[in-house]
TrEMBL record:
Residues 1-19 form the signal peptide. It comes from Campylobacter hyointestinalis subsp. hyointestinalis. This is NosL protein. Gene3D superfamilies: 3.30.70.2050. Keywords: Signal.
Amino acid sequence: MKKIIFFILCFGLALGANLKDSEFFKDVNSTCPIKFIDVFSHPDWISVLEYKNGEKVLFSSVKPMFHYFYVSSYKHISPLKKMYVTDFKTKNLIDASDAFYVFGSRIVSASGDDLIPFSSMEDAKEFMDKNSGHKILKFNEITKKLIDYLD
């Protein structure tokens, strides 16, 4: 059993290292500005704010990204270009505005209770059924009040 856990940890760290080397993440600070952890230590949860000047701010999951967006994004001179979240099923970065978010499941991120993003409604429903999710939300339903509640 210990060998299996060791293999999973090594594979996860290797996957995080591969992401870190991708062109998209080149020359980007990988420390989450809210949770102060290296986002590549949990690559399945990475979320990103990309600004029009090319700056990217990486987050350990959806919740700290939205918290930063609602509380601190005004500090940037450049306007926001795009928001990305990691699809929980495919592990690919997807446009946050197109994602479906499962609220209230028993799965938690490094940030604790969180929203679980999916690129398709079908994947979100399947996950919700298997993991005691309460509701599926669209991007425009994610408010500062909801993020504060999750904290």
